[in-house]
Every structure is written in C-alpha cells, then in structure tokens.
From TrEMBL:
Function: Catalyzes the specific phosphorylation of the 3-hydroxyl group of shikimic acid using ATP as a cosubstrate.
InterPro entries cross-referenced by the UniProt entry: P-loop_NTPase, Shikimate/glucono_kinase, Shikimate_kinase/TSH1, Shikimate_kinase_CS
The gene coding this protein: aroK
Pfam families: SKI (PF01202)
Annotated protein name in UniProt: Shikimate kinase
Source organism of the structure: Nesterenkonia alkaliphila
Biochemical pathway: Metabolic intermediate biosynthesis; chorismate biosynthesis; chorismate from D-erythrose 4-phosphate and phosphoenolpyruvate: step 5/7
E.C. number: 2.7.1.71
Enzyme class: transferase
Binding locations of substrate: 34, 57, 80, 139
Residues reported to bind ATP: 12-17, 117
Cofactor requirements of the protein: Mg(2+)
Amino acid sequence: MPSNIVLIGPMGSGKSSVGAALARRLSRPHVDTDHFFVARHGPIPRYFATYGEQAFRAEEERIVAELLDAPRPSVISLGGGSVTSAATRSLLTEHFVVMLDVTAAQAELRIGDAATRPVLTEGTDDPPIERWKRIYAEREPLYRQLADLVVSAEEASIEDRVDTIVEAMRKGRAEQV
C-alpha cells in the first residue's frame, strides 16, 4: 500500500495550509478531511446541530478510512478530533504522520470567534480558547503517540514547516514517500 503523508494536530495548527503547500512541493494531491466532509454533507456546524457530534465523528472516521485507502499517495490534513477514533489511529500506523503543534496564544489568533468550529462553541459559555486548551490537553498524548514527526508552530512560516517535513522524510522515512 502506498504511504500517505498525514497531518494531525489541534485546531488552528495550520494543517490545511501546510498540507496544501507540502502537496504542491511533492507534486501530490492534497485532501483536507474537513473540506471533503463539507463537500459531501454541507457545513459542519449544521451537521453537528442536526445529527450531533457522535454522528459527525462516525462519518469523519469513514471519510478518513476512504482517503487513506485511495490508490495515489496524497497529503491528507485531518480534522483535529480525528485521532479520537481508535479505528483511525490504527489506520494511521501505515502512513507517515506529522503532528503540527501550536501554542494556545497562536491558536487563539487563528481560530478567532470559532464560529465554524462547533466543538469549541456548543454547550459552553467559555471563551473558545479555554475550550481549545481543554481539548488540546485531552488529545495531545494521542497526537504525539501517532506522530512520526512533530513540527512546532515556532517554525515561522508555512514554507519553513514544509522544509522541516521534507528534510525529515529524506533523512529517515524516504523509503515510504
């Protein structure tokens, strides 16, 4: 099975932006699971409101499995909560997984009012960044456990992060690329 490059990490870590730039650099397709979900089912907040988070996670799991099984190696950016699925975690072991990390301060700038991120706004009066911090604390061990490489948001630009990923692949995992 060909190896995909899979980007994981918390909301606001740059998975979509870095994934698109990495795919261009490697001449591979890029698929963002959130965008794929929206194309198939409509806006995520509406899906959440209609069917709930459990149904969203089940469909997200199916989409990730479908994309990981595609015949052409791709760069795939997963939604922040995808790693909560045991089935998804199991599938990721056969791919090159990169965790994009971000500080809470950086995430706060990137997520804004979180209007399109129902997991940060539904069922709480807390500011979105406080919910983000709790979710990050819960998921960080999963991200790190799955990651073949962790790239910090301290790498100032998207291109810097892409350079780090490409260099790591060349040094240690090139046989899977």
